[in-house]
Amino acid sequence: MNTDSTSSEDEYNPSNRQGNLRTARKSTTGSQSQSRSSSSSSRRQAAKRASKAISASASSTSTSTSSFEKTMETFNPDLSQREKRKIIKKFQPPVVTTTRKPLGAVYDEYGTHMSTNINMCDCLDIKCAGCFFECPKCGSEKCGKECRVHRNYIIDCMEYHGREKIVKNPLLRK
């Protein structure tokens, strides 16, 4: 036997070869082509079976309408409950929950000063219509950094940095 030529027996049994230090490997050229053809034929058969099943179910449903088709015929997105809730939520003002007034609260549940009944902005200008962004809690544009609903402190003055201007709260003078 010639040591230079490799036979299939030498590939499976590397200990038979003296000088070559190759690792054993299995020849898969014949088995790969067989497995590919068998897997592709089984895939083809499965695809044929699936297409036959689909065509059979389509022919049976074409005579009678399915429940899904009936639902889609009667579906109107304008009357759907979900759409109604979305529209109502968008256009309704935020709901102010009625909670018990905490001890020491200076403002009531609407954000007005309790002792004077004046709804003054946090910029301390009585005529201001609201110069802050809309409050996420109550929806008012007169709340500063913190919501005025049941707030237990009152702002006594505002200092403007960069200018020597201090605005005092007109409610404290009364």
Protein described:
Residues 26-44, 52-67 have a biased composition (Low complexity). By secondary structure, the protein is mostly helical. Helices cover 36% and strands 5% of the residues. It has five helices and two strands; from the N terminus they run ααααββα. A two-stranded antiparallel sheet has the order 1-2. The longest helix is centred in the first third of the chain and has 35 residues, at 29-63. The mean pLDDT is 74.
What's the quick description here?
With 174 residues, this protein is mainly alpha-helical. The chain has five helices and two strands, in the order H-H-H-H-E-E-H.
Topology (elements, then pairings):
Blueprint: H1 8-12, H2 29-63, H3 67-74, H4 81-91, E1 157-160, E2 165-168, H5 170-173
| DSSP summary: helix tally | 5
Widest sheet, order of strands = 1-2
Principal-axis shape = elongated
Low-confidence stretches: none
Query: Percent of residues in helical segments?
Result: 25-40%
Region (Disordered): 1-81
InterPro entries: ARF7EP_C
Organism: Ceutorhynchus assimilis (cabbage seed weevil)
Pfam families: ARF7EP_C (PF14949)
